[in-house]
Specification:
4-stranded parallel beta sheet; 14 strands; homodimer; 13 helices; alpha/beta; 6-stranded mixed beta sheet; 15% strand; 438 residues
């Protein structure tokens, strides 16, 4: 596969970074691509590999660089898009939530991990899968995702973690039995060093094959809106992940072929870059009348990309990151930061940051008004949308998709103020008053 | 809707239990039902409510008693079915895993909660949704699921928990902001008492509308196998939950229209009853050539149904349940226990129990060979399958589906033995030896 630099356009066959220093992504020809149809008229005997039964993100086989990964890797993607009307007032718009917690390890990371591991599997020609190694530099969601996808496919996985990682989180990664190595010293530097390590294909936060998998989040969102008219492809209505939900009032996102805005957290810039790449490809395929605006959100305590955007700078400078509850997006030196600036400037949108207080309140609203338990990093989306609608950047009637990137199940929930305790004998009376009070 | 008793056949319009003492379920006419097609040829203006765009379990609208629930409730079901070849040797058969952790609150409970809450919403005719109350007796997954589905739909939810519930778990439930009431006294007795409480529709573990939602797990499994031939309905291949995965070798479950066996944990017997009901309906619709055998698994420390099965008894007697890591299925007095006995005797199969040691080992294998982090209760399936294949009850070439009922993300993972710590300067050498050792 050919790799290309988004900025200088240089092409190469290998590597993750361009000579100009910017990250590379895979060159994809989307000309003539159309949304996959569901009806299969040809018998299996006639099917080409690419036309084998697929599910999840693999339905976009024509725009993906690998075959489906075996095991749970084949089940990645195809996540629900829920119409969450009860959050509209808080969000200040018509809100849909793309629930990435439905992926096998509970986060969007599985999309990039599955494609990254599949690439390694295919590259180890002749070699026994166990002879091939993938690696990643992460001590959070990406580490769990890479370890799980590798375990399921029978590929060896090396996970480099800092030596101060909490043992609790180490346990979540270790359960999938990767090769865990704690690295003493400048962990931040490892992102670049790891790409030079011998014999292991590192799938880091914004490397080309990860971006290739991560772009499918945006495909699914756009497909759900684009085909919401009962198009023969039928995708949004068939029980599949990309399916768009119909609201209480029977309203569906059918007044346009795309949402007005897509909002996601941003850390390294890999996912944000992937969403941009997906929109570029869909535009090339003439599947987008109007591209949604892109808003990427950071935690105020560590917001190098938002700072550069506010300063209208061309380059993101690393910052002295502070603590935030959204620790999984606290990247003080984002390797794809400049690419994110390019994305919002080309498509339209912004990079903004929100306070931990706003993130916590948004997380609470996700649970209380949408029934979704998200991690703080994912809650930055709703906090950002609320900020944007208050400032008039997003209007009440606009259709906005928040990408809820990860589950909050792995975190402790705040214990409630002790609820009333009632003797069994007094329960009926208690319930009667409760119901009449309401 | 008419309710009917599986045992004496008595019909009634209300209640959850038959005069004979056994649990009721909804009377469903499945004659003429066929797998939903995906292609939609009629314009939206012509669509009847039942034909509105649906996703997840709602695609089975013709066999469901309610309209889709708004919010995330509309995204319940449609979970992945993964072909997990790397577990075949351990399981002793050809294994597929139905990953119920992909539901919004991470467990199969969402299916029954969504239909149960939707029923309450529809029953409160004219009344503001906030004027209607649902309730449940649970201090675990079902409580979280009911609280989330209600929050998302704007229905008030009463959750009755014992007064000795761990505050940590109370927090997981409380985040969705239900009315939490701790009940002092005989908590076990509450299952029956709650059904008599005024003004609140209780959706307990095996009540009719919960069973109606829970049966969709079996629909999805059977549909995936039945349509794995590229049937025009195309469902298994379209990125939808019921999609069946193609294995590394290109093998798919296409040699029959149904799996040889479905294996699930059993606690109250509600889910097990629902799986049985689904198979009865699919048989009535002539969609099953051969019904899969049903195996239900309990933890040895609390296994009243398995005991009754082993003793070839007609009635399940309550037991003095001991502690088990599979606490979420430790029901010492299962309200649908007798119905589960009837299920395996009619369809064929068994109820068995496995030790905590076997459960822990199976949980480890789920993570290490399938990349799935499941709760101990869900791991009983793999432990049970291993036991059944060793005893010759399941053969190596049989196609078996394990229903992984819930996520393990909410539990602490065992911390690993401290991994090697390597100075940055020595990393390259360490990696080189690692890769060559492999």
């Amino acid at each position: 596969m050919t790799l290309v630099c988004y900025r200088c356009g240089n092409e190469t066959e290998n590597g993750a970074r361009c000579a100009c220093g910017e990250p590379l992504w895979l060159k994809t020809d989307a000309t003539g691509f159309s949304w996959p149809a569901f009806v299969r008229t040809r018998s299996e005997s006639e099917l080409e590999p690419k036309q084998e039964p697929t599910s999840g993100l693999w339905r976009y086989a024509d725009l993906l660089p690998t075959e489906p990964l075996p095991g749970v890797g084949a089940a990645v993607g195809g996540t629900p898009l829920a119409r969450t009307e009860r959050l509209d007032e808080y969000a200040g718009c018509r809100l849909w939530v793309k629930d990435e917690s439905a992926n096998p390890t509970g986060t969007f990371k599985d999309r990039g991990s599955a494609v990254g591991v599949a690439h390694t599997l295919e590259s180890s020609v002749g070699a026994d899968a166990n002879g091939s190694w993938v690696g990643t530099v992460s001590h959070g969601n990406m580490a769990m995702s890479m370890a799980a996808m590798s375990a399921s496919a029978g590929v060896s996985c090396l996970v480099l973690v800092p030596d101060d990682i909490p043992t609790e989180r180490l346990g979540h990664i270790d359960q999938y039995d990767p090769e865990l190595v704690q690295v003493e010293g400048a962990y931040g530097k490892l992102y670049y060093d790891s790409l030079e390590l011998p014999g292991v294909r590192f799938v880091n936060s914004d490397t080309p094959y990860r971006v290739a998998g991560q772009k499918t989040t945006a495909y699914e969102i756009c497909e759900a809106f684009a085909t919401a008219h009962g198009d023969p492809a039928g995708s949004p209505f068939d029980g599949s992940g990309p399916g768009i939900q119909v609201s209480e009032s029977g309203e569906s996102a059918d007044s346009s072929d795309s949402p007005d805005a897509i909002v996601a957290p941003v850390s390294s810039g890999g996912h944000a870059s992937a969403i941009w790449k997906a929109l570029r490809e869909l535009r090339e395929a003439n599947l987008l009348d109007s591209a949604p605006r892109l808003y990427f959100v950071q935690a105020a305590a560590c917001d190098p990309i938002a700072r550069a955007f506010r300063a209208d700078a061309d380059e993101v400078r690393s910052v002295e990151g502070g603590d935030t509850i959204a620790y999984s997006i606290a990247n003080s030196d984002p390797p794809s930061g400049n690419r994110v600036l390019a994305a919002v400037r080309e498509i339209g949108g912004a990079v903004l940051s929100v306070s931990d207080g706003a993130i916590l309140d948004a997380k609470r609203q996700f649970a209380r008004r949408a029934g979704l338990c998200v991690e703080p990093a994912a809650a930055t989306t709703l906090a950002g949308i609320r900020h944007l609608s208050k400032s008039g950047e997003i209007s009440q009637d606009e259709r906005v998709v928040a990408v809820a990137t990860g589950t909050g199940f792995r975190e402790q929930s705040a214990s409630p103020t002790a609820p009333r305790s009632v003797p069994l004998s007094e329960l009926a009376g208690r319930v009667r008053s409760l119901v009449s009070d309401a």
